[in-house]
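FW: tagging you since you asked about this chain on Friday. Here's the raw sequence from the shared folder, copied in full. Didn't touch anything.
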Amino acid sequence: MTAVVYAEQHWTTPRGRAVRMQYREGTNDWNTINAVMEDEYALAELPALSGLALDVGAHVGAVSVALAADNPNLHVVAV
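HL: got it, structure written out here
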């Protein structure tokens, strides 16, 4: 069995907030996080969000982290 190796990096969310996330080396995690933080999903174009957001299929949680960091009045549940 191969041990999982984690790395950590700082990113900037689509609306410019600094976040730090860990990812598994040797996987597609880094690409997934980077695509979200480079705003591939146009999160910066959303209005300010509040209330509750449910991120179904959150994978590594990049969208959840970006939404929560960029919308302080939003409660995000990642599944």
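FW: The first helix runs from residue 29 to 37.
HL: agreed, and The chain has a mean pLDDT of 97.
FW: great, closing this out.
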